[in-house]
# Entry
Amino acid sequence: MAGVTLKNVFKSYDGTNLVIKDVSLEIANGEFCVFVGPSGCGKSTLLRMVAGLEDISSGDLFIGDKQVNKLAPSERNVAMVFQNYALYPHMDVTENIGFGMRLAGYDKETIKSRVDRIADILQIQPLMQRKPRALSGGQRQRVAIGRALVRDPGVFLFDEPLSNLDASLRTQMRVEIAKLHRQYGKASTIYVTHDQVEAMTLADKIVLLHTGADVLRYGSVAQVGSPLELYARPRNLFVAGFIGSPKMNFIKASVLRIENDGVVVETPHKRVLKAAVSADKRLKTGDEVTLGIRSEHLELADSAKENTLPCRVQWVERLGDMTYAYLQPEQEEQVIVRLSSKSTVSIEDNVSLYIQPQECHLFDAEGMALPRLTV
Ligand SMILES: Nc1ncnc2c1ncn2[C@@H]1O[C@H](COP(=O)(O)OP(=O)(O)OP(=O)(O)O)[C@@H](O)[C@H]1O
Ligand SMILES: [Mg+2]
# Structure
């Protein structure tokens, strides 16, 4: 039973290449925390530091209330499942799962009872006598998870454990991992992925990491919060653009005036739009801003209505349960709108796009979000 605390953690490889900058985080007992972010942002590095597979350049790492900076992986009470899990090919499933306990000197009875219990939980009893080569990808992945579970650790660490599986197996294993975490309610889990859906559905807490120059400017952590917090109240343009699929639409504009119930902006083509956000004493008339709106908050409407943009339909994707239309407004940025499956919109149509003020996000010239008035 253990939480994980990072305090001002930095990591540079070779003393120069700064990968992790100033990460402070608390992952509570029993919490499911997901590290997400673009490729190369340091997710695996951060996880490997918790596991003890990578040194921390500076800062403190606690598991429970014990500082573990200098402890070997085996002394940290953690178990890790990798993307490329390697099972021992010459051992059957029972031996693969029990191997770590055997090394640690447990007696046969204890090993058997724990391995049996894990087999029950993962529903792999019929496979116990098979060698890895006789298992499917998903079954192997389950054995790899079993190997981690059997040690009954305080902290589970997963590095993209499902990325080798096909889409339907991924969905199935995702649900299983969520269930397992509930059964093991006392253990904390840190799970690395760059799959949006995994992050949104599994996490109690998402840690979104920056990449590139943003790390040097702001530190590695872009935002920490529950999935819906990050979705509804992204702190900046990077978070807004990363969380959610399709990506949030962005429209460049400048501030026309500030009203009590929102900020009125004007596009380069003099279209006037209102966003229900507070100017927060930061904005003044003429400031450059970016208006953000998700595709599900857009509608096609009568052009006489307020808060609309004229657009031309460039592409239509009919997915069966819904339709995405790709629209070109007068300015450069393309806008994606989610429509009902019954929509009859087609390529080359001229349409009028209604933007709900209550659902708008607004970002200042630095890319920082203004407080929304409606959430
Ligand atoms: N041993 C190493 N020596 C030098 N640089 C490294 C080393 N390992 C990783 N890096 C660099 O650190 C950065 C973060 O790598 P990391 O593997 O943590 O990224 P990631 O977020 O897990 O990416 P991905 O989603 O592609 O797995 C990358 O720029 C990578 O090139
Ligand atoms: Mg990685």
